[in-house]
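Sat 14:20. Reprocessing the chain from the morning session after the first attempt stalled halfway. Input below, unchanged.
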Amino acid sequence: MTVLCAQAGPVCQPRDYGATGDGRHFDTEAIQRAINECAARHGGVVRIPPGVYLTRSLFLSNNITLQLDEGAILQATTDPDDWGDTSLALVNGRGLTNIALTGHGIIDGAGARWWPPVKRAKKAGLPDPRHRPRLVIFTRCSHVQVRDLTLRNSPMFHLVPVECNDVTIDHVTILAPADSPNTDGIDPSVCHNVHITHCRVDVGDDNVALKSGYRFDGGPGCEDIFVSDCQFLHGHGMSIGSETLGGVKHLLVERCSFENTTSGIRIKSNRSKGGLVEDVSYRDLTMSNVRWPISISAYYPKVPAIDRAQPVTHSTPCYRPIQIINLTATSPDQAGFIVGLPEQLISGVTLTGVKIEAPAGLTVRNADNIVLQNVSIKTEHGEPLLTENARILKAPAP
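Finished this time. Tokens:
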């Protein structure tokens, strides 16, 4: 993996272009001028000193590092009308190379203004009443770094690389209330070569979600993704999907902890969004008070009680092989579920050194060649392993 760093070149400070940092007056123009001036000099650092910088959407350029010093807050406007095009994010990059967001400052999306109508609509069974902006979107970019920052309170997803290659996200904190709707932490979408390390993500939806709605550069939509040493607090866990049409290949998740999340390991898709998810490994994970430590399903959003086989198509979910090694978890609900389709069984899932304590056990349905080695599932009631149309192989302890 090759990630360059945009540190060489001039240092441009938005205050030199009229930024006040007082949190009351818009500093968008001054910050954008600083970015453009650095870009005109073939790249450099746009350094934002302590202060609160009220802003609308900003747009990076090649070879630019946007550095927020400790005490600096890039503050999104609270007025939805100030966004104009809500398909934009607060910080945007498109078709760029060698870009970075760094520093110990904060990017705040002022999402509280957007969340209540969405929550009311969901309770009433209505669609999202308005498209919501994201906090950071990089589209078709390469050699991307996001380091040390705090991202918080996005109206919707926080950090979204789309069709990007060589992305490093390290020591980033992402925060939103546990009940804030669709506030995913990190969503690599149709990306290759992504490293997510030492991050703390406490949000209202997926902590990390790989999305793969189509193929990318002749290969799978998502390929070569590495997630390690992260702490996931409130949220929906480490997810793949629900879009997997483009395929997901080579994911490794290791040395991560989960606390108070709804899911831990989560793979989700359905017959209209599915694709091949292969060579996926999880190891050395701890989970505390996680509702479903293992949540692997070819039905999304809900598993039906009864279902009949349908023809296999290009969008039929297919998961193989999946390794879960050294997982220790407690759950207030159940150990989880591994549920495939009657026409496309989940195949080649191996659980090794898995220990789960939960009121109810692990459901395995429409699955073949599920290998259990040194697996302990302790339940308060019922069987630890509940199977239907499933072939379970129990291997001896090593």
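The longest strand covers residues 360-373.
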